[in-house]
Amino acid sequence: MVLSLCTKRRDNGVAVVVAAGEVDLASAEALEQEATAALVQAETTEVVVDLSGVTFLDSSGISALVKQRRLADERGKLMRISGAGGTVRDVLQLTGVWQHLRAREA
To answer: Global pTM?
Structure first.
């Protein structure tokens, strides 16, 4: 399944990057570019990558997400994932990045 991406902007400075399909070696760069474009906007305070439509995630996708988190940290902005379920969540947990990328507890 091809990866589809779109970014929705909220009035409160949050940009939601919605991904659907497979995030792998062939598509991870597109996810990274979409998230970077959202993150570098001056009005953006937080980027949420919605993975609810993602059916497959490999190490390339994980790397793209970790890079975005690092970029957000460097810019003093927030970055988190949401909607990860099933196999995608399992992969994130097994690789140890789930705690680093998920929403912080209040």
So the answer is: 0.92
